[in-house]
Amino acid sequence: MKLEGKSVVVTGASAGMGQAIVELFAAEGANVIAVARRAERLEALAETLKDAPGRVVPFIGDIGKEETAEGMIEKAIAQFGRLDILVNNAGIMDDNTAVGDVSDEMLEEVFRVNTFGPIYAMRKAVKVFMEQAGEDYDDDDPIGNIINICSVGAAHQTAGLAYCASKA
After folding, report:
1. Burial of 62 by CB count in 10 Å (0-12 exposed, 13-18 middle, 19+ buried)?
2. CA nearest to 45, candidates 25, 28, 69, 72
3. Which of the residues 59, 80, 120, 163 is marked catalytic?
4. In sequence order, what are the residues at sequence separation of 6 or more whose Cβ sits closer than 8 angstroms to the Cβ of residue 5?
5. Is 39 domain-assigned?
6. Element containing residue 70 per DSSP (H, E)
7. pLDDT tens digits, 131-158
8. Which residue range is the domain that position 80 belongs to?
9. pTM for this entry
10. CATH label of the domain that carries residue 56
């Protein structure tokens, strides 16, 4: 892959697929802002990857808050000079409550993280990509990449209502 020197932001980076994505990007020489709520796990990940070809910089925050989405992208620009790739991986599950019993609080929390968080991040990333491209932007040349991690739950309900709807 041609990732050496690329600037990447990965959400949900402290475990599972997000952690694996960070590990792969760093191994290929990309510089990564690793975003999650669990500081100790992000610090451990950065320490584990300290000898990788790419740098890993932890960013502690809740992707469901717009200030986190803006801050993580601003951190990438401050640390690495630009943003090339955004990976929206963060997501939370509901508690499998039946549709008739799911609370407004549960719905709001799941949608805040799984739906609004990626939208906040994409909105900021697209603005940055356009600024980086400048006036000489050519529609045939990519100016940035956004990868949104979805779930089979969006098409085939196997979890609770809030989770499946938020991942659609």
Report:
1. middle
2. 25
3. 163
4. 29, 30, 31
5. yes
6. helix 66-80
7. 999 887 777 778 999 999 987 766 666 6
8. 7-166
9. 0.91
10. 3.40.50.720
120: annotated active-site residue: no
CB neighbours of 58 closer than 8 A, spacing ≥ 6? 34, 39, 42, 43, 45, 46
- Please give the tally of structural domains in the chain: 1
Q: Which of 146, 23, 152, 30 is nearest to 89 (CA)?
A: 146
Sheet of 31-36, strands arranged across: 56-60, 31-36, 7-11, 85-88, 145-148
- Look up residue 34 and give its two tokens: 């690793």
Residue 98 lies in a domain: yes
Establish if 28 belongs to a structural domain.
Answer: yes
Q: Assess if residue 1 is contained within a domain.
A: no
Amino acid residing at 41: R
Burial track 83-113 (b if 16+ CB lie within 10 A, e otherwise)? bbbbbbbbbbbbeeeeeeebeeebbebbbbb
pLDDT digits (tens, 9 = 90+) for 16-55: 999 999 999 999 999 999 999 999 999 999 999 999 999 9
**Which amino acid would we find at residue 134?**
G
> Distance between CA 127 and CA 36 in Å, rounded?
22
15 contact partners, CB below 8 Å, separation of at least 6? 36, 38, 41
